[in-house]
Amino acid sequence: MRIARVVLAVAGLAGLAWGAVLLAGFAVPAPGQALVAAGWLLGGPVVHDAVVAPVCGLAGFAVARLAPPGWRLPLTVGLVVSTVLALLAVPLLWRAYGTPPLPGLHDRDPVPRLAITFAVVAVAVVIGGFVSRRRKS
């Protein structure tokens, strides 16, 4: 167990050092890029800790307290999947062409596709809730 921890720690520190080298190569030559990098590296965690985490915690608390027992698991899974989808969609929703181009995919509007994906998750939650409720009775 101790050897595995040491190996994982060394690998993590090597990854951290490589990330620092890449950040220095990106931010040092152009001072404007340093400000952009600082905004992403500092702004993301602050927004997550100040907005996303409390909202998710309150939603989880509400599901645990208010939802019937057969619906708790499907609702929790649906909330987790929806949150991950929303976080992954931020670069596409933030600005046009927020990611590297993908032939055939990049030129489409992400908002309707995200809405359809949320609808599919909601349908899966409803189906899961009814199946779970039916199994318990």
From TrEMBL:
Keywords: Membrane, Transmembrane, Transmembrane helix. The chain crosses the membrane at residues 50-68, 75-94, 114-132. This is Uncharacterized protein.
